[in-house]
Design brief:
The protein is of the alpha/beta class. The chain has one domain: Metallo-dependent phosphatases (Purple Acid Phosphatase, chain A, domain 2, 4-Layer Sandwich), CATH 3.60.21.10. It contains nine helices and 13 strands. The chain has helices at about 5-15, 55-65, 85-95, 120-130, 170-180, 195-205, 220-225, 285-295, 300-305; strands spanning about 15-20, 30-35, 70-75, 100-105, 135-140, 145, 185, 235, 240-245, 250-255, 265-270, 275-280, 315. The strands form two sheets. A seven-stranded mixed beta sheet has the order 4-3-2-11-12-1-13, with no helix packed on it. The protein has a six-stranded mixed beta sheet with strand order 5-6-7-8-10-9. The radius of gyration is 18 Å and the shape is globular.
Amino acid sequence: MRPARWLGHAMTTCAPIMARFREPTADTPTRLAVLADLHLNVTDHGSWRVSHRTVARFERTVESLNNQEFDAVVFIGDLVDSGTRAEFEAFDRILAGLDHPFVAIPGNHDLIDWHDEGKPGLASFEDRYTPEPLPYHARIGGIDLLAMNSNQSTHQETAASYTGRIEPSSLAWLEAQLDAVAHPLVVVHHNLPGIRELYAETADALETSVGSPGFETAADTLATLQRGHAPLVLNGHLHFPAVVTRDGVREFTLPPLGPYPCGYTTFDIDTDGTIARFHAVATYDGRMEAFDLGYEKDRVRIAAAQLAGLPLVDEWSQT
């Protein structure tokens, strides 16, 4: 019988390629698993986020990750659905079984104050999931992960809105880091203008309204990334995969782990560039359930259309 690590390698090489980029590169081959939008929920049933499957979905994901080699696992927001203590406790219980080092950034659902008492705040999130206070720089393998916080929470108060925002001091930090590090990879939860415009145009074609919280400082963030020549920015939030380049900045929005299409993305980065692959963690029936529950959501239909045309981009084939 083949060992589990070999099986994990086979799983990786057979996973569909979502994108191939010339940058970022890494002098040391580096493997990352990046998880977006789990929305772990311990009370609700159904909904377009497939709430009743999220605990099992995360357990299956940890098992899948443990059968592969990674330098780190990166969570890019919406780890949980409502930011409650019970959700984070369930998340931590499952996360304890992960064999790899991990880091995270919060999404708009992780730290939100809807007049519920006793929810964990930003300091608690940092204690659990970040190597240092946000924003932070984590050297992982051969890349420099620059992790931004677009949740409006501070150490003094929890966010009262799902809308994204990055403080000017954090953007100044980002600009300095982009100037200082050799192999940057930026992660943030909310979406930049390019992906938002793609969403608006596609929703208009579907004759539906755009229904997702925006990003107040998106233009300022894009300008900072442009000045710093950031090679790639990863985010989640909108729940469909897409790659858009605007003003020289490439934005890669990743598919969600909880809702359709129920999977995570791996990144293999070396001197040639970056390969991103999609790994579904739901069975065929599970994906069909998620698609059916989310069909009325334009973002689910956009996700299905995007996945039908992989790869989203292949810069390696361009001359």
